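Incident log, support desk, overnight shift.

02:14 A customer reports that sequence design results differ from what the structure should imply. Their input is reproduced verbatim below. On-call engineer (initials T.W.) acknowledged and began investigating.
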């Protein structure tokens, strides 16, 4: 897997093909919008989805942690699809999370789907986290905060006939793609991104199978 190295607020970061963000100088790994237990949340409302999303997402997360051995993991909110998602975790998935947390700091940023701390899943719960010049939070703000790293919007870019999850940034701030197996996506041409970056004031890093592709705003098409 080949990361894409770039600067944000003066810090060298690496966008990974998985959709995670690596900050080598701080040995920090950030992931956004895991939406664990989304399948079981839908099932409770009568919409049956294959119940494998949590397993698949945790497999991706475990591979990242084994590859980068971070000292700190920051999950940028909506880690669970609803505020009771932790109660529906299987024993195996709960044990997997505990194993991933071992010997490292683990921070759950609260999101709109999981706005309160959850019991029984370890780690610490914060509304946002400042580390050096970077600020990790769930929802991006319209006031152009330098160093802001956020999730929430699940950015995707369409280039030709291809539509893929992506990072979107302007060198000062970034919105990360969702890592969750069942997480959807919002086109970077949506007005929600326009209020943050302007029409063409951004670059996207599109997720490929083994590498990241940097693409200018003018190559991104609406859905």
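02:41 Re-run completed on a clean worker. Output:
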């Amino acid at each position: 897997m080949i990361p894409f190295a770039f600067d944000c607020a003066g810090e060298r970061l690496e966008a990974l093909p998985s959709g995670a963000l690596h900050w080598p100088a701080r040995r920090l790994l950030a992931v956004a919008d895991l939406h664990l237990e989304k399948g079981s949340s839908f099932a409770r409302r009568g919409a049956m989805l294959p119940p494998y999303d949590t397993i698949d997402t945790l497999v991706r997360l475990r591979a990242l942690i084994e590859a980068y051995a971070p000292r700190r993991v920051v999950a940028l909110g909506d880690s669970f699809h609803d505020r009771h998602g932790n109660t529906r975790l299987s024993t195996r998935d709960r044990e997997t999370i505990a194993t991933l947390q071992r010997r490292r700091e683990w921070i759950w940023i609260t999101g709109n789907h999981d706005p309160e701390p959850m019991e029984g899943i370890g780690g610490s719960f914060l509304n946002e986290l400042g580390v050096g010049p970077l600020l990790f939070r769930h929802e991006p703000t319209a006031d152009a905060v330098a160093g802001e790293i956020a999730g929430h919007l699940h950015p995707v870019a369409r280039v030709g006939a291809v539509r893929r999850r992506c990072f979107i940034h302007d060198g000062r701030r970034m919105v990360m793609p969702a890592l969750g197996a069942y997480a959807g996506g919002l086109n970077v041409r949506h007005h929600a991104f326009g209020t943050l970056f302007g029409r063409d004031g951004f670059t996207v890093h599109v997720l490929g199978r083994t590498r990241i592709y940097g693409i200018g705003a003018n190559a991104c098409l609406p859905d």
